Amino acid sequence: MTFSGSVGAYSRRHRSGQCPPSSSSDRRTSAKFATNSIASPTSRRGATIDENTYAERSFRPANKTGQRLHNNYIVKSLVIVLLTEHLLEAGDAKLRGEDFLGPQCLNSSMLIATDSGGAIGAGLFIGSGGAFQSGGPASVLIGFIIVGVMIYLMMQALAELAVMYPINGAFTMYIVKFIDPSWGFACGWQYAIQWLTVLPFEISAACNIIHYWPGSQGINNAAWIVPLLVALVAIQVFGVKGYGEVEFVLSVIKILACIGFMILGIIINCGGVPTDNRGYIGGEYWTAPYSAFLNGFHGFCSVFVTASFAYTGTELTGLAAAETENPRKEIPRASNQVVWRIAIFYVVNLLLIGLIVPANSPLYSGEGSTSRHSPFVIAIQLAGIKALPSIFNAVILLAVMSVANSCTFGSTRTIQALAAHGMGPKLLAYVDKKGRPVSVVILQLLFGCLAFINLAENGGDIFTWLLALSGLSLFFIYGSIALSHIRFRKAWALNGHSVDELPFKAAFGVWGSWVCLIINFICLVAQFYVALYPISGPQLSAELFFEAYLAGPFLVALYLIWKTYSWFARPEHRPLFIRTRDIDIYDGMREGQRTMISGVDVTEGQRRASIAELQDEKRKKGVKDWVVSGVRNII
Length: 635
Fold this sequence. Notes:
Blueprint: H1 3-15, H2 24-35, H3 51-57, H4 64-91, H5 108-117, H6 122-164, H7 171-178, H8 181-210, H9 222-237, H10 239-269, H11 296-310, H12 316-319, H13 327-335, H14 338-356, H15 375-382, H16 388-420, H17 438-448, H18 459-468, H19 473-494, H20 509-532, H21 542-549, H22 551-569, H23 593-598, H24 604-617, H25 623-634
Helix pairs in contact: 2-4, 5-10, 5-13, 6-11, 6-13, 6-14, 6-19, 6-20, 7-8, 7-19, 8-9, 8-16, 8-17, 8-19, 8-22, 9-16, 10-14, 10-16, 11-20, 15-16, 16-17, 18-21, 19-20, 20-21
């Protein structure tokens, strides 16, 4: 056997599963196998001889020079073998489906911090200012509460599915599995495109935020775009662990900033700031000559899209299920934090903003997503507090970069999952041995370079239409998750299983998912109304309508493209939707769960014991335990 022959044999063993790349002992065995199969250049017909025999017979050194030549040859041979092994491992690193992830690095602290503070970003700190201008403080408060209820119910449904099926692609694959592959294809790609286009938008917003500080206005944005992109690349080098560590730190900073602002807001409203000449404010900005509701019903409807954008990223907890150490334990814990984050970091902060900043404040006016128009910064400026606006501006900058970091995670995992399931180019399914979807990361960072478009004179118009392609994607995703949960429960019951067998149950069950669907539909209708009759005037504008609602026709186009393709290439995807009896509830189920539910060797006693264990884990706690748990989660 020649050297090339030994490598070929090793490659065949490696790819057939006999030598998995993750086993260090197999690597040593493979290296020894390849090294011992090196053929002597003087041997005839490529006969294989032992390494030690080869050294003794063929290269018996007669002097020191010969000894050095012999040692050099052996070293070079070993280097070649090790390099070959590395290349083979890299070549075999492309995995399929839910198996692509490799090491699971998101621990409990990362997941909870990411879920609690990961979604707090530009939508809350900056975007809420536009909502106050168009709807007024009461509309903002009610709108955020309504959308918050929808988010909480959606997260409960997603947690139930993610614990049972912690697969790569999460909710995109749930839509494919429980509703229809074509609808899952359309929702998945629109969701991925949303993150692809939001990244350059967030980078541009970060540049505008930097311009808040004196002396930075004269510097070209390109000088800021490059280092911001480099920072994102550096995070991606460390894979999901890098994402988790960075999000953990940024989430803690954002949570502390929100808590600090709540304390400050109460002090400002009560007239406790010496530099604030307004004194006690109370509810002055909710009464005449101000107004709690601006622009009537129009203004109220306009709040929903802003609220959904502010909550963007909450669903990433479900997307991270496949990269969590213990999905059964961590996903429910993280999902249950949603109600606290909505109630405290969003509702309380926005209530205080509405009390201490008039909705018609001239400081809101201006173009662009700069922190000068952030209601949080405006509140501090109106109170006359020095230096603190700059500090909070830095927090907003970190929040925007946190969203940019989430962009790379959300898009890469979604696109890789779609490609791995045959719904995208095979190149995008590639993942290295450390679990990093390298091809998709490169694609995402190339989209990040679109931030340079804003340097052009009409660059903002291009961004507007790019964002319009996926502006409503979150509503479609959230509604589809709720529908997937409803259909899962129906298929679960059809297969003879009870709700007690579920490792985690959504707080309000199927009824919660139905309420989520209804709220979702109402939000879509409200946005359609605002797009058809904008606040700026009674006249219908095709440009304004498609800027607000282009995502709808785009989603339908994606659906028809895959349905047409499936008609010829994938006959199993031809039906309009998957019938309940055709849903395979066991496929993709977490390890061990299927055995305890349907295993032929499991006795009825073992099955009952498993159900009792699940019920014990999910037993209802008393009021005292609930309060203590809530306080601990907040801290």
